[in-house]
């Protein structure tokens, strides 16, 4: 990949999307693996034939898209089912995200990956890693409000993700997101300037 790739990550409810939107406002291309997964599992999505073959017709909703809540329950209850799902989806997501990073027209590209710290393949592709960070109780309340699920279910999801400490240890840069959008926007603007300076230094060193 010729592009300078900045990996953007954070636990569920940390505010990755808000941070990505701030980078996009500076004209930076966002390649979001969650959005790609949704695209692949929408009605007529490229992954649907393989998923229906693997999990049966019951894996789809009436409109032909993946029944996400049913699959979420299945993979939480059955690690083997999770492995089968990931074996189909992950290679397709990686391929599409690679392609979109290569095609990006901005000076650098933001690759938003929720499980970036947990996934060696994505970490290797990033020149820098940015973690969006917020206190765990704030994450939990945000996800409960957004997804309409109980605290126990949110904690179960958090338990499958890297801890806050692991994510911060892996990050080159950290964005604190306590819900104050102008503050987040200011931090992103500062990082944006920093990355442009870094790219300029790289260009000078190689010219």
UniProtKB/TrEMBL annotation:
Instruction: Read off the Pfam families from this record.
Output: CoaE (PF01121)
Primary location: cytoplasm
Its GO CC terms?
Answer: cytoplasm
Q: Which UniProt keywords apply?
A: ATP-binding, Coenzyme A biosynthesis, Cytoplasm, Kinase, Nucleotide-binding, Transferase
Query: Which InterPro entries did the record assign?
Result: Depp_CoAkinase, P-loop_NTPase
What reaction is this protein's catalytic activity? Answer: 3'-dephospho-CoA + ATP = ADP + CoA + H(+)
**Enzyme Commission designation:** 2.7.1.24
Primary enzyme class:
transferase
Q: Which domain of life is it from?
A: Bacteria
Mention one GO molecular function.
Answer: ATP binding
Q: Which GO terms describe its biological process?
A: coenzyme A biosynthetic process
Q: What is this protein called?
A: Dephospho-CoA kinase
């Amino acid at each position: 990949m010729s592009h300078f790739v900045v990996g953007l990550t954070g636990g569920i409810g940390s505010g990755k999307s808000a941070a990505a939107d701030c980078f996009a406002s500076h004209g930076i291309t966002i390649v979001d693996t969650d959005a790609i997964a949704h695209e692949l599992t929408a009605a007529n999505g490229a992954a649907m034939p393989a998923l229906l073959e693997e999990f049966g017709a019951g894996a789809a909703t009436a409109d032909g898209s993946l029944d996400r809540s049913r699959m979420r329950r299945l993979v939480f209850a059955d690690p083997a089912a999770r492995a089968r799902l990931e074996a189909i989806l992950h290679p397709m997501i990686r391929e599409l995200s690679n392609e979109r990073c290569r095609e990006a027209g901005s000076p650098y590209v933001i690759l938003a990956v929720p499980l970036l710290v947990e996934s060696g393949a994505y970490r290797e592709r990033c020149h820098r890693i940015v973690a969006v960070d917020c206190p765990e109780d704030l994450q939990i309340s945000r996800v409960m409000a957004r997804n309409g699920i109980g605290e126990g279910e949110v904690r179960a999801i958090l338990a499958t993700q890297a801890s806050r400490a692991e994510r911060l240890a892996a990050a080159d840069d950290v964005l604190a997101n306590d819900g104050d959008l102008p503050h987040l926007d200011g931090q992103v603007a500062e990082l944006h300037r920093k990355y442009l300076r870094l790219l300029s230094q790289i260009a000078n060193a190689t010219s």
